[in-house]
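Supplementary Note 3. Input sequence used for the single-chain structure prediction.
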Amino acid sequence: MATDGVPGENPTPPEGATDARYDYDLVVVGTGPGGQKAAIAAAKLGHKVAIIERRHMMGGVSTNTGTIPSKTLREAVMYLTGMAQREVYGASYRVKSDITMEDLFARTQHVIGREHEVIRAQLLRNHVDILSGTGSFLDPHTLGVLDDDGIRRTQVTARFVVVATGSKPHRPTTVQFDERTVLDSDGVLALERVPNSMVVVGAGIIGIEYASMFAALGTRVTVIDKRPSMLEMCDPEVAESLKFHLRDLSVSFRFGEEVSGVDSNTHGTVTRLASGKRIAADAVMYSAGRQGQTDALNLSAAGLSADSRGRISVDEQYRTDVPHIFAVGDVIGFPALAATSMDQGRLAAYHAFDEPARELQSVQPIGIYTIPEISYCGRTEAELTTEAVPYEVGVARYRELARGQIVGDSYGMLKLLVHTETRELLGVHIFGTSATDLVHIGQAIMACGGTVDYLVDTVLNYPTLSEAYKVAALDATNKIRQVARFSL
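The predicted structure, written as discrete structure tokens, is reproduced below.
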């Protein structure tokens, strides 16, 4: 195993598991965010742990084709296009006039390589044995480790198992993917050049993230979705703000439209819509949801099964129908985010070994790395209205903040939802620069049961974007005060 510092080279399982009937107390399948945290959490509790991963996929999909590459690509786009500075230096400002895919991916490959090293070092430092190969159930307590040719290199037994195999892009059977002009979100990372035009099918998080990146590069983007709007999980005002901003970057939207097929040749693609419309573009990117990677697991041998999208059903403790087998991350479905997957992995390990654990599901933040970014935590106006919860809205615009002017962000906004009677924070919704960082201030206050009065009374550094919280808090409390006057 990995005890000699060479992961996966020794096929003989080590001794020392707490339960002598098994080689390991816990075996984790997958080194993505959920798998990493499950393995390390169990090791910190003093248990014997192994983790199974394909040699070229350390860190899982998140590190190699998903979260890390796409977010690094976004940073490269933001820098090279000068997008963040155009408010200050003019609409034509660019750091590099002719941006190539090599320019964009240079940073991405560096970051991926560093992440591989960091993850491997963390696992080894915590004495987690790394078994190189593909994990597959032989029975509920036994897993085989297969090499790239499907030949079993070794097998191990485990008291508990955590499945954290992640997901892959769902590919509709009606579409012929050619990895050159018709791609999924993973294929975007293999593009040879920046396309002049692109069709993005799917207005969910991944689709809109990539649409905004390519629009910033100057690509003419058309977004198609059969749903009536994009990012339906977001506050409508925030989603509309992003939509307006993307339209300013020449993004076209075709909502309520369904793709009937895509034709491609050496000249590009033509996307055929059910309504009869045809859209020509250099490339088509499909973002039609994700598929759990469970095909190679041989779940039936463990007494488990997956749904049509490859997802495994779990209870509130992330336990599957087989009590000693847990599943976390994308393979269990929504919210399928790296941040939530990490906590799911930690909690699954705690529940397996009866360690006290508490989950703050109601205040988990959502981060969407569009350009500009979106983040929110807590409930939306629609949810509060449906539940008949009395609330008031406080809004701060970045253009009203000195820091907003300094960083050149005149479109950003922060919205607070405040209970009019208890004055507690019910939700925070942010659009603009540093939204995914700023949201954690509101998250912390909500998790601690704090009220809007904390934000009114506290002193925040000036000039900062965090000041938006105080501006929004004052806006909300002033509105509550005005209504109260009529009740006297």
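The two ends are 74 Å apart (CA to CA). The longest helix spans residues 101-125.
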